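STRUCTURE:
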């Protein structure tokens, strides 16, 4: 599934529309990939893990394949109205790598 230009991620937006987007080498994390593809995340802190405006829900098939949240990410997410202890992630804290090809996620509702 991986293309020469990058990994492919399945994104469900807030309206339920699924879009397949492909990363490029300049994108280090999911937030950059989502933001660059106009996937309706604000990312107001620019990826510093201080705002939670890049909140996403990772598909359950991928939970065990990604590194766990750290304490800063946990703290920010726990205060979000739509926090899901299993699926919630700050997309700025999920670094892209080839093993993530085919990942599915949903953009969290705005707070």
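SEQUENCE:
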């Amino acid at each position: 599934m991986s293309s020469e230009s990058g990994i492919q991620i399945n994104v469900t937006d807030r309206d339920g529309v699924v879009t397949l987007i492909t990363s490029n080498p300049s994108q280090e994390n999911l937030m950059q990939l989502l933001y660059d593809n106009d996937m309706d995340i604000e990312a107001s802190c620019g990826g510093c893990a201080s705002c939670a405006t890049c909140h996403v829900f990772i598909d359950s098939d991928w939970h065990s394949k990604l590194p766990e949240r750290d304490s800063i990410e946990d703290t920010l997410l726990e205060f979000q109205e739509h926090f899901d202890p299993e699926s919630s992630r700050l997309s700025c804290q999920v670094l892209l790598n080839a093993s993530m090809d085919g990942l599915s996620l949903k953009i969290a509702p705005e707070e």
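REMARK: Strands lie at 8-12, 18-22, 55-58, 88-90, 104-107.
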